[in-house]
Amino acid sequence: MEKRYLVGVVLLVLMAALLIWGLPGPSEPDSPEDPSTGSVSTTATGPAASVPADTTRYDHYRQRATELGPIPASLSGTRVDGNLQVNASGDLLINPAIRQVFDYFLTGLGEESLEDIQARLAGHLAEELPPQAAQQAWALYEQYMGLREAMEQLPEHDGSVAAMRQAITQRHDMQQAYLGPEVADAFYGLDMTYDRYMIEQQAVRENDNLTAVERDQQLAALEQNLPAGLQQMLNETRAPIRL
Fold first, then answer.
1. DSSP-assigned letters across all residues of 76-140
2. Residue 43 in contact with residue 178, Cβ under 8 Å?
3. What is the pLDDT of residues 66-93, one digit of tens each?
């Protein structure tokens, strides 16, 4: 009787030990990847911030693209603006076309959600670019959206030349901070040149110390200093007026 009792106690102790030491402990969370290891940094903004960060955001939207319905009516029958390119190393070639692609898909806002728009963009990048360049383009898109959101928070100016000069300088600084000099110039360089031209043109027109001849000379000089492409655009804009 005593032997059986001792055996039973030993069995109970062994079973308790197995339960304590044999069960797996709580799993350790995966350590986050260091964002500095990526070739292009990303910035999560807006509603998409609930989606995992880094390259998994791009993968998330690329997968979602396979589940989308028809494109918005406003984009039906159109082609994507902008020709995405890569260099010899397979990296994304920085040019104004990248922003054109982003803006093309963003025109669908109001017809479908931003989530669906971003999925369409990710699907397009995957189709048009090799994987490395596609992820670089996606990183630029997230930085671009962060910049757009920040610029929307800028206060209105009063329309004076001084206030407009200050506003354009502030926008330029934000573009450089969010995108870096190369991308900011590719995305906004022409816009900034045109905006500055319009501001300086207004300053000349409002200068009461100039004669009519001096005013015309300074306005002509401002236009002559514009890049050839902008000069051509202005001439084409004025053609119907001249006609």
1. TT---SS---B-TTSPBPPSTHHHHHHHHHHTTBTTB-HHHHHHHHHHHHHHHS-HHHHHHHHHH
2. yes
3. 999 899 998 989 999 899 999 999 999 9
